[in-house]
Design brief:
By secondary structure, this protein is of the alpha+beta class. The protein has 5 helices and 14 strands.
Length: about 270
């Protein structure tokens, strides 16, 4: 990687606004801003399990590749296509991370090289989970979490935190995620609030909201709140670090922010 470079108005099929190494960025942000675009061999990627990105000759980011390990993306030149890696960044305590982080890299003419996997045969390594979505988590806003197991961990953690906070404040909270267009209902002193929970490993500038969630919030103004837990970190034991990231509770007024259709990306007001 080079030093952090702003992209300005340069076309980028991954929707990035910068690439390169930023010492203040989280592993998730570094991965999303540097996983593509590369001139790489599809067969070469599929034969690998780990990806190591280096800055000034030292490995600064290690990721576990998932599924095929790559997707094809458009280059800024018409008709030209490159590869973007698919995976999840690792953290201290994971054997793949511990084996590769800080290692020296010998530069060659090709900026991308393939090498033998580190020996982690005696360690407990979480299994690779096949991807079931087409997108990936974005650095600024919530994206589709492509590992179904991790997606459930993140969703459950965000909802549990939101419900517990209201219970601690004296509300009677009911889990409604399976039969309502909102995740929970909180009742106190004759007042009812509908709660929506969003969890993301990104900076949380936007979150994904469904059409049903938007329609419900629009038809019940002033009765809906959304709890957004951003910057979530998941160490090697696949449990959310409760001290990670930032937790915010906002009025859920979809029209106060900016909606971009996907379902919708809701860019939070302010």
């Amino acid at each position: 990687m080079v030093e952090r470079t702003e992209m300005g108005d340069t076309f980028d099929s991954l929707g990035r606004d910068w690439y390169g190494y930023d010492p203040d960025a989280s592993p998730e942000e570094l991965w999303e801003h540097n996983r593509g675009q590369w001139d790489l061999s599809a067969k070469g990627i599929e034969a690998q399990r780990w990806a190591a990105l280096n800055y000034k000759g030292e490995v600064v980011l290690v990721a576990e590749l998932l599924g095929s390990g790559h997707e094809t993306v458009a280059d800024k030149r018409p008709g030209v296509f490159k590869k973007a890696l698919i995976g999840r960044p690792l953290h201290p305590g994971h054997p793949g991370y511990d084996a590769l982080i800080g290692a020296e890299v010998q530069y060659v003419r090709n900026p991308a090289t393939y090498g033998p996997d580190p020996d982690v045969s005696n360690a407990s390594v979480p299994p690779v989970v096949a991807r079931d979505q087409e997108d990936s988590s974005a650095g600024r806003g919530q994206g589709r979490q492509l590992d179904a197991r991790l997606r459930k961990i993140i969703e459950d953690a965000a909802q549990d935190r939101l419900m517990q906070q209201f219970r601690d404040d004296g509300w009677v909270v009911t889990d409604t995620r399976h039969n309502r267009p909102y995740d929970a209902e909180a009742v106190k002193d004759g007042k009812t609030i509908n709660l929506e929970a969003k969890g993301t490993q990104s900076r949380g500038e936007s979150v994904i909201v469904t059409r049903n969630e938007v329609e419900h919030a629009r038809s019940h103004p002033g009765e809906c709140l959304v709890g957004v837990w951003s910057g979530i970190r998941i160490p090697a034991d696949d449990e959310v670090d409760p001290e990670s990231g930032e937790f915010r509770i906002l009025d859920f007024d979809p029209d106060a922010g900016e909606l971009k259709p996907r379902d919708y990306d809701w860019w939070l007001p302010g």
